[in-house]
Amino acid sequence: MAVKGHRVGMEVSIAVSHAVQLARAEAIAAYPITPQTHIVEHLSSLVANGDLEAEFINVESEHSAISACIGMSAAGARTFTATSSQGLALMHEILFIVSAMRFPIVMAVANRALSGPLSIWNDHGDIMAARDIGWIQVFVENGQEAFDHTIMAFKIAENYKVLLPTIVNMDGFILTHVVEALEMLDQETVDKFLPDYHPRFKLDPKHPLTMGAFAMPELFTEVKMGHQHALMTSYDHILKVWDEWGKLTGRTYHPVERYRTEGAKVLLLIMGSLAEVAEVAVDEMREAGESVGLLKLRMWRPFPFKALREAVAGAELVIVCDRALSLGGAAGPVMAEVRSALYPLAQKPAVVGYTVGLGGRDTQPEAFKEIVRLAREEAAAGPSQEYFLFGVRS
Amino acid sequence: MSKPWDQVTWQEIEIGGILTEPGSARAYNTGDWRSQHPVWTKSRCIKCGVCWTVCPEAGITEQPDGYFDMNSYCKGCGICAKECVTGCISMVPEEE
């Protein structure tokens, strides 16, 4: 029997900070950046008011924020941070070190375009530039999911068989600054779900050890293999935590979510909040008798190869809608990944890619109907380009 | 880690590359890859210890008789030879 949370109307950023509070984070270091600001501002208030017993370190940059988080996680604290866009880029060199040293830090990324030109608005350019940092990465599409996945991220990250930092991606403004209705859980329920963090290793003068040692060429590849193995095998542990959450709350999550995919010949594939917009388009196309469904990619790292292959079985055309560019490259990052994942299949659908909604460009349901129309023409003729930038004026 | 590095498998490496025993630097003899090493001419050595003081890697050890000699951590940088007050230290190439 699922626990009934109490229903509240709340800005999603505030809901995320309450999720961190309910998770009893012990250490936070963050630097404010639009559109992540409300998350850390509110956490700062919670700590200052004594509502969250945690160390909150104000730092002078995101590079320092994530570095301080490493120190606090190494000392054995449950650690959280949040950032966006240029802030994530400024963290870049440290992000690889967090995951290589296997610190279970949880980070909310309020996805925003990378400059230039300067843009504070939403797309996935920031996280795609950090695609290969070796963290677990999930995407959410509404406020409830942002709340749920923030709590679950700690449980996933801290599992001794995982011990990997985890990013919860949420679209900047579209999610972070919107007031939504969502179900909050009480402290007792969260405490039962998420026990105290007991680090496997921590810095302790009584039991000295070395963290962050160098690796000679004879060892570097072996260390990387261990990291890759941990990330790939984290898949099963992530599913276990999502299952447990489903039993607890009645909200069950999957690596590849399906929306009206029964018998669909054409599948849209989208990550993040635009998937909810695409639902409207799919509803309208279904009512018009078109065989169109929607896949929502929730788990980005580790990439859910098997789940994706199962989800596209029977489809003739998969249309990937990226929120980022790989300038001069093969396709948008999601498109490239999906096409690679499907390539080994003997029977595979055509894959056509469109990049949409860059730098906050409004994307309405009509856009997805237009994309489906265009993609069908491209697939029938054999795609004329590697991928397309949708809605660009010429 | 008791095995030579090039025989360690990925499964044998601790999570995050953590070294669970303190003092692990001791096990790495940095002298392995030096291309030259210092040789003391005892007849000109005044046991002043400047070489021991200036060595950046603790690669010089005082002997029971008060003279100095390199140890297995000497990388062969030559600072001791450069700074020796009496010029009693010469740098000699490692033999193949």
Task: Describe the overall structure.
The complex is a heterodimer of chains A (394) and B (96). Chain A is an alpha/beta fold and 394 residues long. Chain A folds into 2 domains: 6-249, Thiamin diphosphate (ThDP)-binding fold, Pyr/PP domains (Rossmann fold); 256-389, Rossmann fold (3-Layer(aba) Sandwich). Chain A is built from 13 helices and 15 strands. Chain A has a 7-stranded mixed β-sheet, sandwiched between helices. A 6-stranded mixed β-sheet of chain A has the order 9-11-10-13-14-15, with helices on both faces. A two-stranded antiparallel sheet of chain A has the order 1-8. The longest helix of chain B has 5 residues, at 50-54. The mean pLDDT of chain B is 93. Chain B has a domain at 30-96: Alpha-Beta Plaits. The chains are: A alpha/beta (394), B alpha+beta (96). The interface between A and B is medium-sized, with 24 and 16 residues.
Oligomerization status of the protein chains:
heterodimer
Q: Averaged pLDDT of chain B, please?
A: 93
Rg calc of chain B: 17 Å
Distance between the termini of chain B: 28 Å
Name of the CATH first level of the largest domain in chain A: Alpha Beta
- Looking at the overall shape, the CATH architecture of the domain at 30-96 in chain B is 2-Layer Sandwich
Q: Report the major sheet of chain B.
A: 2 strands, antiparallel
Question: Could you list some keywords that capture this structure?
Answer:
heterodimer, A: 394 residues, alpha/beta, Rossmann fold, 2 domains, 7-stranded mixed beta sheet, 6-stranded mixed beta sheet, 13 helices, 41% helix, globular, B: 96 residues, Alpha-Beta Plaits, two-stranded antiparallel sheet, 2 helices, 4 strands, 17% strand
Sequence-ordered SSE layout with sheet pairings:
The complex is a heterodimer of chains A (394) and B (96).
Chain A: E1 6-11, H1 12-22, E2 27-30, H2 37-48, E3 55-58, H3 62-74, E4 79-83, H4 85-90, H5 92-100, E5 106-111, H6 125-128, E6 136-139, H7 143-158, E7 166-171, E8 179-184, H8 187-193, H9 217-249, E9 256-259, E10 266-270, H10 274-287, E11 292-297, E12 299-301, H11 305-312, E13 317-322, H12 333-342, E14 350-355, H13 365-381, E15 388-389
Parallel strand pairs in A: 2-3, 2-4, 4-5, 5-7, 6-7, 10-11, 10-13, 13-14, 14-15
Antiparallel strand pairs in A: 1-8, 6-12, 9-11
Chain B: E1 36-40, H1 50-54, E2 60-62, E3 68-70, H2 79-83, E4 89-93
Antiparallel strand pairs in B: 1-4, 2-3
